[in-house]
Amino acid sequence: MLNSLSGRFLILTVVFVMLAEVLIFVPSIARFRQDFLQNRLERAQIASLALLADDMLATELEAELLANAGVYNVVLRRDEVRQLMLSSPIPTQIGHTYDLRQAAPFPLMRDALKRFFSPGNEVIRVIGEPVKGAGSLIEVTMDSAPLRMAMIDYGIRILILSLVISVITAFFLFLAVRATLVRPITGVVDYMQRYARAPEDIRGIITPSAGVTELREAEEALKMLQLQLTQALKQRERLAQLGGAVAKVSHDLRNILTSAQLFTDRIEASEDPLVRRMAPKLVNSISRAVSLCESTLAFGRAEEPAPILTMVRVRAITEDVSASERLALAEGRIEIANDVPEGMTVRADPEQLFRVVMNLVRNARQALEVLDRPGKVTIGGHETDQDWIIEISDTGPGLPPKARENLFTPFQGGVRKGGSGLGLAISAELVRGHGGELVLTDSAPEGTTFEIRLPKAKKLFT
Where, by residue number, does the polypeptide cross the bilayer (predicted)? Predict the structure, then answer.
């Protein structure tokens, strides 16, 4: 209850109403004090009228008049003459004198607070103006204790009244907040939970109905978000189905092309000049198709397995890659140099690191094959305090602009004509799985350089 929006609003309402009542209480208690003293002056003036009617009053009657007025003596100034109208013994000296004639608001509030928080009793003198023009000044002496007790009683009644007002106000505000804010917000939360349970159910999409402008805008924004998310989920499902179909087609097509590739050896052995001239182009086309099918199947997997990290000799992996790629080289035109230091070891999954290096070296070799000049692919390595770095560089011709803009985007970042870009996308994903990054550091007509950066520090997960 108290942790809810309406409960918090209820508590805050009570607190703020009480604060407002405190601000009202100070001038209110000052006004009460002034009225109390003015009342004593009026009662003292009425008592003094008896003396005006009869110059000689019995001592007992005079004491009764003073007791009824609540004062010790009464001084009245009439016709510029100051007269002691009624008197009785004063138990102590006069402590303070208060003049109610033309008193300013702040001094009145200051004196009221001092009296309210000052325990004990003292004799005070109060000066004011007589009512009905019965003189120019009236002055009385009295005890302060009755004044303070009356002020405390008044303050208690004000406090009780303030509590009642604040509780009633908070209750009605509580009902208003529940009707105008809490219920609409609860409705929005219900729609969100229902949509989260079944995003495909159109009934989970909210229908804006709030009367409050801000809540209405929130509901409309939520509806738009739900519609967009529903559309995205449907598109994702369709793409997943399409991906599964493409993977099946690629698998079967790869098998067919692999069988066709076996027959190219016999075609190349043909004595027909036309066949011998066309056979290399046919072999290259079939090889590219097989490579595309294999890349599509690799990318179509739901996810790569988590790398099993061990300390790996980089030189051994790059030697395997170099040996594999040299088999596909044209004689004397392209060189693959393995310049990785013998003692360099990194923390990596050997199989996944082999695939990354193989993809980068193969891309570099295929890029050089289109040039009508010799080229070189260099595999190097070094380390810093934070990273192990493996470099794969070539001597040209550089990446086309489209490939640089979509370097690691599947089917868009191909670095050669007919390429799919899946090799770089898969390689970048594998390196990220190691906590590292695959970076293009240079690409110009003179050559291209990629860096595999693997962190030395182990990542700690809590």
Answer: 6-30, 158-177
**Backbone φ and ψ of 162, nearest 5°:** -65, -40
Buried b (16+ CB within 10 A) or exposed e, 78-100: beeeeeebbebeeeeeeeeebeb
101-147 tens-digit pLDDT: 878 888 888 899 898 888 889 999 999 988 776 677 889 999 999 99
Give the Cα separation of 372 and 148 in Å (integer).
111
Q: What are phi and psi of 285, to 5 degrees?
A: -65, -45
pLDDT tens digits for range 380-389: 999 999 999 9
Whole-model pTM over 0.85 = no
In this predicted structure, what is the pLDDT of residue 384?
Answer: 93
- Residue 105 CA to residue 406 CA, distance in Å, equals 78
Q: Which residues pair with 416 in a beta bridge?
A: none
Give the N- to C-terminal CA distance of the chain in Å, as an integer: 35
Query: Mind spelling out the 3-state secondary structure of 186-225?
Result: HHHHHHHHHHHHCCCCHHHCCCCCCCCHHHHHHHHHHHHH
Per the document, the length of the chain is 462
pLDDT digits (tens, 9 = 90+) for 193-238: 888 888 777 777 888 887 778 778 888 888 888 888 888 887 777 7
Q: What is the DSSP string of 4-46?
A: SHHHHHHHHHHHHHHHHHHHHHHHHHHHHHHHHHHHHHHHHHH
Closest by Cα among 340, 342, 437 to 387: 437
**Contact predicate 289/257, CB 8 Å:** yes
3-class DSSP string for 275-339:
HHHHHHHHHHHHHHHHHHHHHHHHHCCCCCCCCCCEEEEHHHHHHHHHHHHHCCCCCCCEEEEEC
CA 25 vs CA 112, 116, 148, 151: distances in Å: 11, 12, 15, 11
pLDDT per residue as tens digits for the range 60-89: 777 888 888 889 898 888 777 777 888 888
pLDDT recorded at residue 454 = 96
Whether the Cβ atoms of residue 117 and residue 144 lie closer than 8 Å to each other = no
User: b vs e for 245-283, b when ≥16 Cβ sit within 10 Å of the residue's Cβ?
Assistant: ebbeebeebbeebeeeeeebeebeeeeeeeeeeebeebb
User: Which residues are registered as beta bridge partners of 205?
Assistant: none
Please give the DSSP secondary-structure letter assigned to residue 269: T
Q: Is 113 exposed, middle or buried (0-12, 13-18, 19+ CB in 10 A)?
A: middle
